Every structure is written in structure tokens, then in C-alpha cells.
Please model this.
Amino acid sequence: YKEALDAYFEASKLIDEICNESNILNFTNYNNIAEIYAIKKDYNNALSYYIKALQEARQLKDKIWLSSAYNNLGYYYYRIDIKDLDKAIDYYEKAKKELDYEQKAHVVFANVIDENIAHISLLKKNYKEAYNKYANIKVSEGSYIFRRANVFKYQCLVMLGDYKGVEKLDDTLS
Model:
């Protein structure tokens, strides 16, 4: 990982020499550096670079990059620093607010974010809330996210002891 980090740091220097303003290259670079630090379990540096990516995205004033930066911070608090799941939800909600729901790619991204929020509700043992969030994910029937959401809806219903709900879900999917 050292070689990869060195390469990204060198790339950052070159980008700064060539470009005098914020750009997508720095944004991507910072996210990649954050990911490497996360893999290495160097979470303080990972968070620091996710925040740098967010700052870069704010300068870019591009909604999809800003949404992506918020999503990455949500992911950090959801997957890495799970002590603060509410902070993860806050970042995921900020990510969703930046999306343009007229664009199909943004809708797909919103579904992934919604699925992550539903997973957090499940982790918090908020089964009814998790079920509702999974049920509200808007994807085409048969898609990967649709199938995953149904598996988690089953899990929520079982945890709630709602076996009639499980039967109804079975009927609607058959």
C-alpha cells in the first residue's frame, strides 16, 4: 500500500502544479487515498482524506461529486466508525439532497444510499423502520437491489415475528 500512497501523493503534487483550482482529479485522488488508509485501518487519515474530498467537491460545485463525497463519509461512519450510526445517516441524507432525480444514474445512486440507510436501521434493531425503508427502495423488479431488499424485508419480518407478513411477501414474489 505504501507504493500506492506514494503514487497518489506524487499525483497530488503534479495536479497542484498543473491546476490552480479545484478539480475532479484531486477529488478522486483524495477518495483513493482515504480508501487505502481505510484498508490499512488508519482511520484518522482515512477520515481526513474523505473530508478533503468533500472540501474539493464543495469547490467544484457539482452535485454528483458532492453527493459522492457525502456518501463516502456516510460509508465511513456506517462501516468503519459504527459508534456513530446517526452521523452516517446524516451524511447519507445530505448525499441524497444533492441528487437530481430526473437523471437515471442519480436515482440508482439514491437507491444504494437508501439501502445503506435501511441497513443501519437493521443494525440498530429498528426492524419496522428498516422494513419500510427496504420497501420504499425504488428499483425494477428482479434487479440485484430489489432481490437484496426482499431478503432484508424477510429478515425484518421474522425479527418482528410477523410470519403472516412473510407469507404475504412470499405470495407477492411468486
In short: The chain has a mean pLDDT of 89. The two ends are 47 Å apart (CA to CA).
